[in-house]
Amino acid sequence: MESLTNRKKVVSDKPMTLWEKIYLPAIISGMLTTLRHMFRKRKTIKYPEETREFAPVYRGQHVLKRDEQGRENCTACGLCAVACPAEAITMTSAERERGEEHLYREEKYAATYEINMLRCIFCGLCEEACPKEAIFLTDRLVPTYFERDNFTYGKDKLVESLDERIDITKRQHTGKRTQL
Amino acid sequence: MDTALLIEKSILVLLLFLVSLGAAAYMTYFERKLAAWIQDRVGPDRAGPFGILQPIADGVKMFLKEDFIPAKADKWLFIIGPGIAMFTALITSAVVPWGPKLHLFGRDIVLQVADINIGILYVFGVISIGVYGIMIGGWASNNKYSLYGAIRASSQMISYELAMGVSAITIVLLSGSLSLTTIVEGQSEVWNIFYQPVAFLIFFICALAELNRAPFDLPECESELVGGYHTEYSSMKLGLYLFAEYTSMFVSSAIMAILFFGGYNFPGMSHFSGNTLAVLGILAFASKIFIFIFVIMWIRWTIPRFRFDQLMHLGWKSLLPLSLINLLVTGLVIAYKNGWF
User: Fold this and answer.
1) Which of A168, A160, A95, A155 is nearest to A127 (CA)?
2) Which of A77, A115, B180, B251 is 20 to 30 A from residue B85's alpha carbon, by CA?
3) Residues B43-62, buried b or exposed e (16+ Cβ, 10 A)?
4) Contact A151, A98 (CB under 8 A)
5) What are chain A's domains?
6) Helix (H, G, I), strand (E, B) or coil at A89
7) ipTM value of the model?
8) Residue A37's closest chain B neighbor by CA?
9) Average of per-residue pLDDT across A2-21
10) Cα end-to-end distance, chain B, whole Å
11) Looking at the partner chain, which of A30, A40, A44 has a beta carbon nearest the beta carbon of B302?
């Protein structure tokens, strides 16, 4: 039969010749292979001193974005919670009061917003579902804790602070969104 | 005069003891580094610069581990086993000539603990005792894996000692002496390897088998026998077994350098004399030992383990006849040169 790839090798069990039976040539060629490896460049990353570079589209801990004027983008529509395959996201919504226009961008906002980081599989579907460009995954890592409760991140940990904005331009260059 | 000799020899013995142990300790480090390099890794590099304090850390770890003796084990034999292994590994180096005569404090100091005229026989005798350490340890553990390892070790040692002995006899024929000093001095012009490449090959393969090194590490093959003869050992008793293996590797490298690569002889030796010659000779000998150790480790991390029937096949059906033929040919050539025909 015609082979689809050119990787096919015909094996045979013909008896070995004397040259092959001595084994020494095979041993020496094997030793030359290991000798070459001795002088190769090491690929090891010495972790505590060096860290591996993150891919531009790394999906780590989430951030709830604010807009340019510092208002929260999230309107608590719940699409992220619906999209979440791990059901890690819960939220309660509230209506924006008069005088809170500088805090929330639209009339409705998330009063509480919680992601259980133990349930989260960091698939990024919440980000994809969000119509308001409110939630993004970042290249930050979720640390480890001793207690399970600590893994439920509320708004205090998720919403970016005003003076420490989180850069998500790398995520926006994935082709999904063209304008900010 | 006698007291001076006693002091001189005592210092030499102490030095030799420390050097053997130090070399064995750093061989473990070098082996780990080499294994890492061959596998494109970095190897131990945390303890000290480049990890050079690793053997010390390992030693401390070994001492601090729980020293456990299984309930059904034969207690005394269990303790004696690693002792014998270490003892035999260390006393082999007594007959090794480490360098030309050193001249210090108005005395000629022979760099050899005992120049006995049956040096080779002594070495072979002591190496044969070495198997008792493994055998007794494996037996006393009262564990089937240990016993398997011990049985394999003893059958392997017996099988390979024959071919090893026969190939050493060819060297004895060449130099006409059993004394290691005479053998080394006889090689000041041409090293024995150029007369006896086949004997060297056989001797080297047999030495690997005697050392229980890969590809002949069946007595302790972890994939089949858990840990072989030292399965039940822990703490420094295990440490002694591992240490004994490295010490005997050091000593066998020295023996191979003496028998086939001219010991402390090096090319261009006639240009030097006195203490310079002695120091250079020691350095030449040390570098030969190092090269041997390197090759043995290099082989270990390249070649997979033999099957036991392959091991026996190689020892009895290939190496022994080959060494006998080699001995016969050597004998005939020597007889012809001496005009016996």
Assistant:
1) A168
2) B180
3) bbeeeeeebeebbeebbeeb
4) no
5) 62-172 (3.30.70.3270)
6) strand
7) 0.74
8) B38
9) 80
10) 51
11) A30
